[in-house]
Design a protein that fits this description.
alpha/beta; Cytidine Deaminase, domain 2; 6-stranded mixed sheet; two-stranded parallel ribbon
Length: 158
């Protein structure tokens, strides 16, 4: 594959590989995903919006919802900029499909782990691997698919 195949736009060429030693346990992923899925009252009532959240390993720090999956990501990062909330070594959870554009957005903010309730695109998986991002998708109950950089998922200590 040619390197240019990894970029949606020229701005994406500025994405650097995420250098982070952040690790998360499977239990922490499931707890965050469960909290996330119950945070949007609009979604629970209508099933007509997307949601995204910036998290540390234990809690949701910033939550947003919108009709567009890209808008939810932009909203959480906008709030982080306005309120001086750090994004490095954090986790993003989204209800939407993880595409190349979403991955470039999180890489530019130093986020090493992205989780989705949905499945990623094929190009999304390749870009996550190339950018050093741990990509987790298809969370259902106590099951998930870890597509890239699985070394960040550590054994539970219980």
């Amino acid at each position: 594959m040619r390197k240019r195949d990894f970029f949606y736009s020229a701005a994406d060429a500025l994405s650097q590989k995420v250098e982070s030693r952040l690790e998360i346990s499977a239990d922490e992923v499931f707890v965050l995903a469960n909290e996330f899925q119950h945070s949007s009252q609009v979604y629970l009532a209508t099933h007509g919006v997307h949601s995204a959240a910036l998290c540390d390993r234990k809690n949701i720090v910033v939550f947003s919802e919108d009709i567009g999956r890209h808008n939810t990501i932009d909203k959480i990062f906008g709030k982080c900029l306005l309120e001086d909330i750090p994004t490095h070594d954090r986790v993003v959870i989204t209800s939407g499909r993880i595409s190349s554009e979403i991955l470039h957005k999180v890489a530019k903010r130093g986020i090493p782990i992205i989780i989705s309730i949905s499945v990623p695109t094929n190009l999304g998986v390749r870009i996550a691997d190339n950018l050093g991002i741990t990509l987790i998708g298809s969370i259902r109950g106590k099951r998930m698919n870890v597509y890239t950089n699985d070394w960040r998922i550590v054994c539970d200590t219980k």
